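Hi V.,

Quick status before I head out on leave. The structure for the redesign project is tokenized and pasted below; the design run finished overnight.
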């Protein structure tokens, strides 16, 4: 600490304390997060005491969900002798990008491998695209409710998230009024999660058309997260945005969800749109990627095997999700306090429950009294109380037991009915 004086403590509004030297803050404001555990995580720590059996209906780690992986194929793929050579390619090795292009071919989209760039996951892909599009303080439009990781991704890249609403009326739709009102001079992109987490709604073809128009009008890009694209509950094949040329489009995905291999750390960005925008976007992204060269050689050489693994894994997951949804509906039909929101795809279901307490309090009570873990809706920015989020990839027996406990909880407590339910 030569010449930096004596440290003193600076306490922020959030209550976090940071060491300062000579009046200079030691850490950036972008990391000024409230790191203290919240009430739900505290309750979870207590409930996880050894010997107590909990039913986890928040599971999102597929490697702990009792799926059958082709372990030999996965591990053998990592032994490719080509991995012993270091061949730094900013966009990623062509062979790996061709494997990703083959995935899109199966979706009916001809994606040029030269317009693909590999990353260590979708999260890193978001960071690269935020870095490419936004200067500090610029705005990115994000749906509400949506996936909670966005806040941290945005903080780390110094961009400001501006919400637009999804509205629920016999299914989810984009509220174009709030979206158009949210656009300012500083807006750079619209984030779409297709299908969204946790609402499970796909962007419909008419919405896609309107979004393209809006982007052209305001010079915005589309940033489309398709990690759950393949998990449509009616067995249909939703159209990928990887063929969208109507506006500058970054389509993000990766093997973490499509092949249920999050530990292998492989994602990608497909860049499409008007030629005048695509070329400079790719040139700049290549520099960002070249700065890190983050995807390891063994993973790139294994990419085609990993992407191929999706076929057997998706068959298992789709069957499980279907069974869990049918089981859930069966249990829901036998009571009248809770209901399920319509869902088109993905790994989650949203329950509408009586608003006798905040979602947080309900989730904590469920944990303490019924030993079942669910996510309160406010984790995903639902606009009102009364929503709980369940993972549909939990093993069938666990899922059914958890749902019974949850419904018993609402039944047991003899909750007064709200006006809506009367
Ligand atoms: C919608 C969505 N996008 C991205 C991710 C992260 O994906 P990755 O593991 O590829 O970074 C998740 C993880 O749950 C997610 O739910």
């Amino acid at each position: 600490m030569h010449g930096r004086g004596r440290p003193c403590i600076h306490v922020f509004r959030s209550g976090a304390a940071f060491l300062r030297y000579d009046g200079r803050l030691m850490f950036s404001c972008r990391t000024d997060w409230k790191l203290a555990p919240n009430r739900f995580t505290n309750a979870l720590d207590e409930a996880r005491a050894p010997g107590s059996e909990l039913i986890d209906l928040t599971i999102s780690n597929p490697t702990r969900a009792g799926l059958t992986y082709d372990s030999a194929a996965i591990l053998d793929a990592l032994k490719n002798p080509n991995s012993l050579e270091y061949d730094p390619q900013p966009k990623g090795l062509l062979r790996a990008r061709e494997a990703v292009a083959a995935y899109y071919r199966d979706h009916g989209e001809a994606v040029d491998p030269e317009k693909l760039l590999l990353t260590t996951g979708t999260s890193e892909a978001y960071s690269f695209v935020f870095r490419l599009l936004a200067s500090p303080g610029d705005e990115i439009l994000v749906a509400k409710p949506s996936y909670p990781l966005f806040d941290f991704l945005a903080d780390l890249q110094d961009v400001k998230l501006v919400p637009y609403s999804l509205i629920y009326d016999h299914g989810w739709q984009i509220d174009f009024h709030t979206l158009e009102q949210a656009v300012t001079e500083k807006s750079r992109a619209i984030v779409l999660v297709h299908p969204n987490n946790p609402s499970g709604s796909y962007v419909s073809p008419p919405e896609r058309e309107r979004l393209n128009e809006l982007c052209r009008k305001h010079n915005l890009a589309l940033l489309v997260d398709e990690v759950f694209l393949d998990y449509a509950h009616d067995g249909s094949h939703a159209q990928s945005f990887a063929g969208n040329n109507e506006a500058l489009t970054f389509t993000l995905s990766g093997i973490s969800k499509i092949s249920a291999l999050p530990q292998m750390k492989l994602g990608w960005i497909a860049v499409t749109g008007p030629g005048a925008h695509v070329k400079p976007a790719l040139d700049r992204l290549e520099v960002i990627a070249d700065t890190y060269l983050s995807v390891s050689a063994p993973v790139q050489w294994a990419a085609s095997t990993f992407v191929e693994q999706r076929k057997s894994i998706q068959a298992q997951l789709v069957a499980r999700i279907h069974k869990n949804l049918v089981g859930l509906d069966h249990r829901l039909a036998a009571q009248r306090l809770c209901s399920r929101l319509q869902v088109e795809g993905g790994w989650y279901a949203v329950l509408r429950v009586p608003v006798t307490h905040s979602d947080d309090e309900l989730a904590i009570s469920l944990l303490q009294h019924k030993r079942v873990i669910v996510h309160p809706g406010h984790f995903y920015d639902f606009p009102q109380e009364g929503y709980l989020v369940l993972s549909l990839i939990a093993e069938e027996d666990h899922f059914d037991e958890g749902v019974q406990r949850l419904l018993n909880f609402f039944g047991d407590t003899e909750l007064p009915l709200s006006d809506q339910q009367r």
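Above is the designed sequence. The mean pLDDT is 91.

G. will cover questions while I'm gone.

Best,
W.
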